[in-house]
Structure prediction request, 681 residues.
Amino acid sequence: MSVKYPLLDSEITLGATTLKNRIVFAAHLTNFARHGEPTSQHLAYYQARAQGGAGLIITEELSVHPSDWPYEKLIHAYNKDVRVGFEAITEAVHSHGAKIFAQINHNGSQGSSFYSMYALLAPSEIPDPLFRENPISVGAEELNEICHSYGSVAKLAKESGFDGVELQCSHSSIVRQFLSPLTNRRTDRYGGDIQGRSRVLFEILREVREQVGSSITVGVRLCGDEMLQGGIQIEDTLELVKLVDESKLVDYLNTSIGVATASLWSIEASMAIAPGYNLYIPSQIRAVTELPVIASGRIKDPVQAERVLRDGQADLIGIVRAQIADANFANKSLKDRDDAIKLCLSCNQECVGRVGLNRWLGCIESPSSGREFLKQPEPRPLYASHRGAYAPTLIPTKHISITTSQRILVVGAGPAGLQSAVSLANAGHRVKVFETRSAPGGLVTLAAKVPARAELGDLIRNLNRQIRAAGVAVRLNAPLDVKHIEEIGPDVVVIASGSKPKVPHFLSKFNLTPLTGEIGVCDVVMVLEDLAFPTGNVIVLDELGFHQGTSIAELLAARGCTVTISTPQLYVGQDLGVTLDLESWNLRAACLAIEQLPETIVTGVTGKTVHLMEHITSATIDRSFDWIVLANHRDPNNSLVEELIQSGFPSTKVHAIGDALAPRRIHQAIVEAVRVSEEIR
Prediction:
């Protein structure tokens, strides 16, 4: 048993299933399905978390009926052909001592008829505010058919080797729509008070139990609070929990918050939302039931998880994004190696964001996440270089294939440089890193200084730990030129020197410094590096639509500036919607009285007057400002590449990665850093 986390490492029994620990890899969408069936991608993904030590894995939702096809890559569990894939998945998970439940669901009105070509079914004819499609009120005969389909899919799950089934009655479910007074306006036996609105739930549960008996576990995931006026509130859920208890049909309760439309931001909250924001739901449910209760939501390290168990707020902990970032989260936690965990950033960029864009689930800092099924490069012997020297010390490994170790110089210690150094060192090369700044981290360290973005710093902490473990020397305050590189004499040079400011055409007569008597001009990075100190009336010109502009606007408003943020896009922070940050940004912006000017471009600057034009109407606006702060595209800082090649260094031995190749987001930098270690063989 773990010394540090004994409760997290303790067994628990859910109905017919005993789990080896309290860590749950809870249900979440992956977009791995093909043609309505599970794939080898699912198998490898779930197997990696089982091998990583999770006690319980709950699959993404499995559709129970042909009328439910809300998005393209959904598993159609009502199709018996899925059994082959299910059996392979359950066998793989069981081989590592973990248990696996199937989450079964019908999305009701929270979907689209685009794929199924059937009208959406719902308790009442109320369009969902996100999907904006008129559903039809499900009739008694159709409802009876759907209830039977839940039972049939539960039976298939049992026959396929699943240890249990979980009914999704939470954020995106026809059952929640029946439970909610917002979406259930029926006047028949399925409407009215909680007894009527919950009738469908209990009919489904009875059908499931009739099909599977007590030989496997049956659980329910409930929405504790829809976060919508007039919707389900915690008091309603507590009343429902008492009815569930009395039914004796359920072995455990899982919890959720929000709905997968109007309050989607609350379900998979980003780093802008405080950890523990939704623990009032499982803690209050646990107070009125003897059933085991699962808590989840922004629990990203074992310290938080153990505290929740110790304080009696839940019996199990749903940990999803943290196990996406590090498949070995559970083993590292329970073997008291939690200092080796690659902490999740809660950035939502490549997990929630990718799925929302109909792409595979991924992770900003773990490019292999979601790609476990792909053939990985064959590992090579590991070398650890002495600090400040190339002389290697061989670390014995079980691999006997030996490849020539090369001396590699990495220029830059931002995320691209650090990740490339880690990957190259672990591939058997001898690596040195040189950084011009006084600390590693590059622009990520600066970005972590702005409001609501501090957890970005976990990326650099994770990489620094890996750098130390790999024995890589990082030299700070150490600018390099061609002469220095030639003196060092590496076999390969990786240029990860980041980016530099870019002055837009309408400011071509300005330098990025304040001019006496005229408007001050700087970019976001200069503010964060304390090279510029905007005051008074400030306009942020945002060409990027992501955190750069909105974050600096918040920072300056908090410092007392009067802030306007302008963007040529449809609305300010357009890409924040993908990461579920848009709602919280708008709330904070309103509190700080930040003015937003969407669909507006700058045509020029005269003195302190900024000339603006509205896209749609072509109307011109002249506004006076003390400062312009640019949140715009940057140029690659890669002059060293051409200088090296001109000096005679082989072009095949120079690799530019990350922003030094083309300034983009963190994920591209990490991917290229890993890829370069595969190219240098």
Q: What stands out?
A: The chain has three domains: 12-356, 382-500+645-679, 505-633. The CA atoms of residues 223 and 295 lie 12 Å apart. Residues 505-633 form a domain with the FAD/NAD(P)-binding domain fold (CATH 3.50.50.60). The first strand starts at residue 12 and ends at 14.
